[in-house]
Design goal:
Helix content: 25-40%
Strand order of the largest sheet: 12-11-10-15-14-13
Number of helices: 24
Distance between the termini: 123 Å
Strand content: 15-25%
Structural class: alpha+beta
Number of strands: 31
Largest sheet: 6 strands, antiparallel
Shape: elongated
Radius of gyration: 65 Å
């Protein structure tokens, strides 16, 4: 099996039918594993290394055993040969010894030969030396009781003159004996001599050497086993503990990579030499047959591709032109996880897929464009902006030019009126100098034009070749010629349909591409316009509802400020970025030259907030006519909001008003005092004439509608020229900052405007705000004026009717000083009636005050809380006509209550 250089052997994929071997690469010892670990891995026998180890150990063991057996057999053979040779030598020596033949013929051969035989046996170390006659009867024997008995063995050959050697098992055990003839001088056999030795005696030396032999065999076995273990260890590292089945599958996979995979695979070593290339790589790169082993720069590749292969850098789907093929190349280094240096490169031929991928790319681009239309069209609830988003999305991805034409009624939020002209709302193109109708132009399409047909039928119309479309050219011959000369040659016009309404037309024009629009592109255009039509219709509906809400809100806000002399007032109102809010403000002239400033906020947006704001503003107008203190007015307003909430919650789906806030302030130019109360509203800011800015500590009451707690007032003494700044929370609070940070920024802006007028102050404060704030902003800046002592006259009147004449005289003189002699008569009548009523029905002390402001104001005060009322006196009544005369002579009159009583006042316009 060929192992892929530079990478660990890949593991075959696990399948249900072939479970992974327990001795897997994850559990195999690495290069630093011990010999015992290798042996343990090998003993299991499930990996290739283990099986090789066991097989090699078995072979070594067989060789050692065979060697020992062979050695033992050799020793035994040598023992037999040695025993035969020794026995033969002893027998021949004894048979040929002098006197042996003569002794055989002596009368008592045993007596002569027995001592000689024993001496020879002892001297030679054989086990016996037996001399016998030709009949085999023993004359000698180590055991004397055996003498005279028949010899055991073969003697016939010896009688014939030959030597006999044989192995027998005698009475003393296995032995080798030799029988030789004894010849007389005449050569006749006269007897026989047999010498023998047992194998035990001869093999003793061999037996002594056997332990050494076995020890040497054991040592050889140990050395062979160790060597086998080292070999198995190396094999285990190379195969990563894989079993035969896995190795087989790896070979099959490797063979598939080399010959079957339709993707080129290259393995390059760290030195830049090609180590492996499969068949597909040879085909794609046209490599030579001997490419493997050569440097990649020597393979005849182009410089760019060869440089990439030699660099070993990471590459992902890099496209290279190799000869006539466009190859996508991916390359990864092999040493990321400790492997050898080098890189693995895969090649994919994209030439054959170019046409298919082109169509897929077109489909993907169209899907992307539809997705972008879903998220990019309708980001605002503005009709014109939505139309511009549609045109901008289509160019240049779908068309070279795009125009959107809508009915004028759609732009104003109304339903379209068919038959009227359309207005070009948006136009986009790859160039700005196209001769198409410009944005803002009113267009009335002729009946033969594709646009008119699309409006009439409600279906898309495609004109593949504009030059061949006389109906389109009839729209405007001069302009259409300019369009054709400009290069625009194809058109798709799609009606903007929202349900049953046709809002306008979208036209797509092609100039850069020579191919005309086809049927598939018509379907895409319709899908794109359908999605945009929903957003445009939503924007149209929002425009209508927003216009209604804005109209309602503007009708409820003050259109101009009333005339008054106590304050110089400037104001600003900024609507929210989205929706109509419930912020409001007002300036209310009161009796006695006083002025009330009010700022309120209804939390929320929409028609409900605007309507609620109008109701609260009307209520404040009515309550202020009663000349109530700020805390009492807020108390009545709180009760009103609570009743409104009850009425709304009683109706199904009604929305409550909880969350309304209000600040009410009354400024008196005579005393220079300002009384302020607030219901959950931010505190006012006060800019002193020297530029010092402070936020007076006005008790914070609960928002309107909660009830249960009284409101408190704070009384401020304002120097002439002070600026009182009232605002809603949209000025100082939003999602990005809290109210404390907003108040700090407001104070900093006010400090930068020392001596500025209210109008300049408004501009300076609002310059730090965004053009369209996230919440409504109402701002009032009022600079105080003072009604000086030269314009105020006061008298104390005793509770005596005779004192009325003195008051009239004093008033006449003061009017003369002011140059108002024309008002002396009516003023005397008014004061006479008011002072007389105070003397008759009120309680002292009684005061008279005359104020010269925009009007002449007469005030009579007493300690009584009984309010006079106007009535018609009968013809028989003596009195009851005084207030009627006052009402006829004065422009306005009324009563206000003070902590110590009441004041009846009357105003006369100045001449």
């Amino acid at each position: 099996m060929v192992r892929l250089p530079g990478r660990s052997a890949p593991r075959p994929p696990r399948t249900s039918g072939h479970p992974r071997a327990p001795h897997s690469p994850r559990r195999a010892r690495g290069p630093g594993g011990s010999r015992s670990g290798v042996l343990r891995s090998a003993v299991t026998g499930r990996s290739v290394a283990g099986q090789v180890f066991l097989l090699q150990v078995a072979i070594v063991l067989l060789l050692v055993v065979s060697a020992v057996v062979a050695q033992v057999l050799q020793v035994r053979h040598d023992t037999d040969v040695e025993a035969g040779n020794r026995s033969l030598a002893v027998a021949q020596t004894f048979a040929n010894a002098p006197g042996t033949a003569e002794a055989l013929r002596s009368p008592d051969p045993t007596a002569v030969l027995q001592p000689r035989a024993e001496a020879a046996r002892i001297a030679t170390g054989v086990d016996f030396v037996v001399v016998m006659n030709t009949q085999g009867v023993r004359y000698t024997h180590p055991k004397t009781d055996r003498i005279g008995k028949k010899f055991v063995g073969t003697i016939a050959p010896a009688l014939a003159g030959r030597t006999v050697t044989e192995h027998i098992t005698g009475t003393i055990g296995p032995l080798v004996q030799v029988v030789v003839p004894v010849r007389d001088p005449a050569g006749e056999v006269v007897g026989l001599v047999s010498a023998g030795i047992t194998t035990a005696h001869v093999g003793g030396t061999a037996d002594q050497q056997l332990p050494l032999l076995l020890a040497a065999a054991a040592a050889a076995l140990a050395l062979a086993t160790a060597g086998t273990a080292l070999v198995s260890r190396r094999l285990l590292r190379q195969t990563h503990g894989l079993g035969p089945y896995e190795m087989t599958r790896m070979y099959e996979h490797h063979d598939a990579v080399l010959h079957a995979v339709r993707e080129g695979v290259l393995i390059v070593g760290g030195d830049g030499r090609l180590l492996l290339a499969n068949d597909e790589a040879h085909r794609l790169l046209d490599l030579p047959a001997d490419a493997e082993g050569r440097h990649v720069l020597e393979l005849g590749l182009d410089d760019e591709t060869a440089g990439l292969l030699a660099s070993g850098r990471i590459a992902t789907d890099e496209v290279h032109l190799v000869k006539d093929r466009l190859l996508a190349i991916n390359q990864r280094p092999t040493d990321l996880r400790g492997g050898p240096a080098g890189s693995v490169t895969t090649l994919r031929d994209s030439t054959e897929l170019r046409a298919l991928s082109g169509r897929a790319e077109v489909a993907r681009e169209r899907l992307d464009m539809l997705y972008d239309a879903g998220v990019g069209i309708g980001t605002s609830l503005d009709v014109a902006r939505t139309a511009e988003e549609l045109a901008g999305l289509a160019v240049p991805r779908f068309a070279d030019f795009a125009t959107v034409d809508l009915f004028d009624a759609v732009l104003s939020g109304e339903e379209p009126r068919p038959g009227t002209a359309l207005r070009r709302t948006a136009r986009a193109g790859v160039r700005e100098d196209s001769p198409l109708y410009p944005a803002g132009a009113r267009i009335r399409f002729v009946p033969t034009s594709p646009q008119a047909r699309a409006l009439t039928t409600g279906q898309s119309v495609v004109v593949e070749r504009l030059r061949e479309a006389p109906g389109w050219r009839a729209q405007d011959l001069e302009r259409t010629d300019q369009v054709l000369d400009y290069g625009i040659h194809s058109l798709i016009t799609v009606p903007l349909r929202a349900g049953s309404l046709v809002l306008g037309l979208v036209s797509f024009w092609r100039a850069e591409k020579p191919q005309p629009f086809d049927a598939e592109e018509v379907s895409l255009a319709e899908e794109l316009v359908t999605r945009a039509a929903v957003s445009i219709d939503n924007a149209r509906r929002y425009t209508r509802e927003h216009g209604m809400a804005v109209t309602l809100q503007r009708s409820l806000l003050p259109r101009s400020l009333p005339e008054q002399g106590a304050l110089e007032v400037a104001y600003r109102y900024l609507p929210a970025q989205a929706g109509v809010g419930g912020d409001w403000f007002d300036v209310l002239p009161l009796s006695g030259a006083r002025v009330a400033l009010v700022v309120g906020d209804v939390v929320g947006h929409g028609l409900h907030a605007a309507a609620t704001m109008g109701r609260l503003r009307t209520a404040v107008h009515n309550f202020s006519a009663l000349d109530l203190p700020p805390d009492e007015l807020l108390g009545l307003l709180d009760e009103l909001v609570g009743r409104l909430d009850q009425d709304e919650t009683g109706a199904a789906g009604g929305a409550v008003v909880t969350g309304a806030t209000c600040l009410y302030a009354i400024y008196d130019p005579v005393s220079r005092r300002c009384t302020v109360a607030r219901a959950g509203h931010p505190p006012p800011a006060l800019v002193r004439p020297d530029g010092t800015v402070e936020f007076p500590d006005v008790p914070a009451g609960p928002p309107l509608g909660l009830g249960g707690l009284p409101f408190e007032t704070a009384e401020l003494e304002l120097a002439e020229g002070s600026r009182l700044v009232l605002y809603t929370d949209g000025l100082v609070e939003d999602r990005e900052r809290d109210i404390d940070e907003g108040l700090a920024l407001l104070g900093e802006a006010l400090r930068r405007t020392p001596g500025a007028s209210p109008e300049e102050t408004c501009r300076a404060v609002l310059d730090r705000l965004p053009a369209r704030p996230s919440d409504d902003v109402a701002l009032i800046v009022a600079r105080t004026r003072v009604l000086g002592g030269d314009r105020v006259a006061q008298w104390q009147v005793p509770s005596d009717p005779a004192a009325v004449a003195k008051v009239r005289s004093s008033v006449t003189r003061r009017l003369a000083d002011w140059g108002l002699e024309e008002l002396a008569f009516t003023t005397e009548l008014i004061l006479s009636e008011l002072v007389t009523n105070a003397i008759r029905y009120g309680r002292g002390p009684i005061g008279v005050r005359l104020l010269r402001d925009r009007t002449l104001i007469c005030e009579v005060s007493d300690r009584s809380t009984t309010s006079p009322h106007l009535r018609y006196a009968a013809s028989t009544d003596e009195g009851g006509r005084g207030l009627f005369l006052v009402a006829q002579l004065a422009g306005r009159w009324g009563t206000r209550y003070t902590p110590h009583g009441k004041v009846i006042w009357a105003e006369q316009p100045l001449p």
